[in-house]
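[job 4417] fold queue: 2 targets
>>> target A
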Amino acid sequence: AKRLLRSAAGLLFGRRTYLHMASYWPTAPSDEIADTMNGLPKIVFSRTLERADWANARLVRGEAAEEVARLRREPGKDLVILGSAVLVSSLLRAGLIDEYRMIVNPVILGRGRPQFTDITARIGLRLTQATALRSGVVILHYQISGREV
């Protein structure tokens, strides 16, 4: 997490993930991760949220794909999305995702929500890195290798 946040120019959130994160990080005990989470610019995509009060957050009510395409043209570090499955799916459909970092926790739930919603194309991924942590968590890095319509 520290390495990912160090590489970030900003964080992108959908409404639900933003509300979840904003309920914890502003009052989290100060450490490298909390300080970085609170200090990074945050862009929140929502048509229903009235305001985004977490430090350095700004609300975007327009099309996420248009704003992210504009942000990608700016020089600098990476834009990072934490969670926000609906936002990720919309940016994936627009071809605006370069890399996925998926974290696999060693827990079997037996049910849940699909990772990507509303994806109608088959999208190939190429594994570029896998890191197993002592906890059993595995972090997988993927790049898009192809898209079938």
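>>> target B
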Amino acid sequence: MEKTLLWGIELIKSIQTIENPVLTVIMKVITSLGSEFAYLAIIPLVYWCVDERKGVRLGVTLLLSAWLNSVLKAAWRQPRPYELDPSVGRALEKSYGLPSGHAQGSLTFWGLVGSWMRAPLGLILAIGLPLLIGFTRLYLGVHFPSDVLAGWLLGGGVLVVYFLLGDTLERVLSASNIRIQLLTVVAVAFLMNALHPEDTSLGGVFFGLGAGYLLMQAKFPFSARLGADGQAAKPGTLAIRYLLGLAVSTALYLGLKKVFPSETSSSYALFRFLRYGLVGAWVSAGAPWVFLRLKLVGIKV
């Protein structure tokens, strides 16, 4: 492994021979397309304004992929390149290196989004963008080539499981009553936290998103495509939905962080779960309910 890491640092140094300030800014912008903030902005957009079913599928798949990545990072505890050679560091990260979360997440996320689009845009998003994001991780010196390759392999594996089993699992759950569905969401969230108690945020979002979606489907099944008049929603209505929903999401995310216990508290993990759970529930159920009351969205027929 040591030889592989040393070879990786040499490759990073070779890539960084093309470095210049403008290119570094461009690389940081591109790499942000594989960050959690990009996903937090795009998943609600899909869910509220494009297709609620695709939105929840995208969110659940990405959350499970991110959870797997976090578990493996904690298990392998591999350093970042700049921790072995500070000269290659162009950015800093808080977590361990292997596997690359940006590589895995971008292939999972953009691979799924790209599959819904026609070529060539679909291929660019599904293949080209994850490759480019992986390259930026090497350029910035935050991942070894082996980290990026492992991330791509895991992301590809998640997509294979999704395409092979996604429809079947959804049909099985849809055939069950809502109590069984909710218990399934609770059980998965519990396992996510039990197997990776170091970070309860992903389990929290999964619980909030999943439970909220099920309750929304049972009580007020909105259609992201429709306006209150039952016709296709107008661009202005979609923009109001998105900006309003995102404003509340941001307020919950930042506001609850301020008022909930800090990392030094013994109850931090619980309140972190609650904070992320409330954000997930707002996205899947709270925002659609508000949109219905404001006549910004239509009900499925």
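[job 4417] complete. Note on B: The longest strand covers residues 222-223.
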